[in-house]
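User: Can you recover a sequence for this backbone? Please restate the input before giving your answer.

Assistant: Of course. Working from this structure:
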């Protein structure tokens, strides 16, 4: 779901990607927060990953559209097993420090995940994050079974 938020100087965008995942919230949280688990399903080209902790910095590169895209992040809130929030800066955010929030709620024997990414530029690159996050969350939902072993 895409929402445009108006700023006096720049038009900003907020996207939301919901997904039910067949795993308990603590397993889904750990898949995002533990570097070795994150690396197994996220498959960054190159990364400097840290265990999720407030103000911890991390970096990763995505191989997308035939080239590498660098992403710079900093954890803002880490509340196991229900919430992760981090900054997100990349070429696709036009250098703006955007914010990703991952909320996890136990539901129907699994986890309802809602990923919200706000502060994105309202342009083609900013809007492309919705498809990217939808694909990433779908990959996690499929791969988490193997991560739980």
């Amino acid at each position: 779901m895409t929402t445009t938020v108006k700023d006096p100087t720049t038009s900003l965008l907020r996207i939301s990607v919901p997904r039910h995942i067949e795993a308990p919230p603590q397993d889904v949280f750990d898949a995002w927060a533990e570097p070795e688990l994150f690396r197994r399903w996220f498959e960054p080209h190159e990364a400097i990953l840290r265990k999720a902790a407030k103000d911890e910095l991390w970096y990763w590169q995505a191989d997308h559209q035939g080239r590498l895209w660098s992403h710079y992040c900093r954890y803002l809130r880490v509340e196991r097993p229900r919430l992760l929030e981090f900054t997100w800066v990349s070429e696709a955010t036009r250098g703006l420090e955007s914010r990703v929030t991952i909320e996890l709620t136990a539901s129907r024997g699994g986890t309802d995940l809602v990923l919200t990414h706000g502060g994105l530029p309202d342009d083609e690159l900013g809007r492309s994050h919705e498809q990217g996050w939808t694909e990433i969350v779908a990959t996690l939902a499929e791969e988490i079974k193997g991560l739980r072993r």
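That completes the design. Residues 84 and 94 are 23 Å apart (CA to CA).
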